[in-house]
Design goal:
With about 220 residues, the protein is α/β, with parallel strands linked by helices. It has a single domain, classed as 3-Layer(aba) Sandwich (Uracil-DNA Glycosylase, subunit E), CATH 3.40.470. About 40% of the residues lie in helices and about 10% in strands. Helix 7 links the parallel strand 5 and strand 6. The two termini are about 30 Å apart. It is an enzyme of class 3 (hydrolase).
């Protein structure tokens, strides 16, 4: 599989691409895509990086795994392509957005306009076999995306990291909290949200407040 990733990231990540674990990962992914239906399509695997250059990163949202049903995954965590029914976690993200900022519930679940403004929508695992959640975990993707988080932490300042749920919160140890902002809450999945761990976190307004404090342009969370 070709690593079709924006040049701004290659500057920092090229050493990873030469490591044995990453070569093994690419061989595994290539075999999986030939042998099974997998998501997202190969041209979208690195979408998070191609819609948000390294220079532009202001906010990082960490997901776990791509959606595994047909037509859903588009390479950005929590995002679905235009015209696709919104999965339950995304529904709750949009409900919180409505409550927090008064933004009307959007028609499309495509979060590309967030990415284009500097929100890195990063899944820890970038691929999945159809209808088989977690099927590409522990094959090397997590090692790679941990390096991505560490690199952002080391090379940038004043990035807002949004850690939603237990899995994302474990990534806090990779972030230098003396120079970045970390906001934590429950996961937007119905299980967590309905227990009161998600709604009311106001992460969208809080993110923009933090960006304003360091004189960085805020995110327009309203989907185009």
């Amino acid at each position: 599989m070709n690593v079709n990733i924006d040049q701004s990231w290659k500057t920092y990540l090229n050493p990873e691409f030469e490591k044995p674990y990453f070569k093994d990962l690419m061989a595994f992914i290539e075999h999986e895509y030939k042998s099974h239906t997998c998501f997202p399509k190969t041209s979208d695997v690195f979408n998070a990086f191609n819609h948000c250059t390294f220079k532009d990163v202001k906010v990082v949202i960490i997901g776990q795994d791509p959606y595994h049903d047909v037509g859903q995954a588009n390479g950005l965590c929590f995002s679905v392509s235009d015209g696709i029914k919104h999965p339950p976690s995304l529904v709750n993200i949009f409900k919180e957005l409505e409550q927090d900022l008064g933004i009307p519930y959007p028609t499309s679940g495509n979060l590309m306009s967030w990415a284009d403004q500097g929100v890195l929508l990063l899944n820890a695992t970038l691929t999945v076999r159809a209808h088989d959640a977690g099927s590409h975990q522990k094959k090397g993707w997590e090692q790679f995306t941990d390096v991505v988080i560490k690199t952002i932490s080391a090379e940038k300042t004043n990035v807002v990291f949004l850690l939603w749920g237990g899995f994302a919160k474990k990534k806090k140890k990779l972030i230098d909290t003396s120079k970045h902002i970390v906001l934590e809450s429950g996961h937007p999945s119905p299980l967590s949200a309905n227990r009161g761990y998600w709604f009311g976190n106001k992460h969208f307004s809080k993110t923009n407040y933090q960006l304003e404090q360091v004189e960085v342009s805020v995110i327009d969370w309203k989907l185009k």
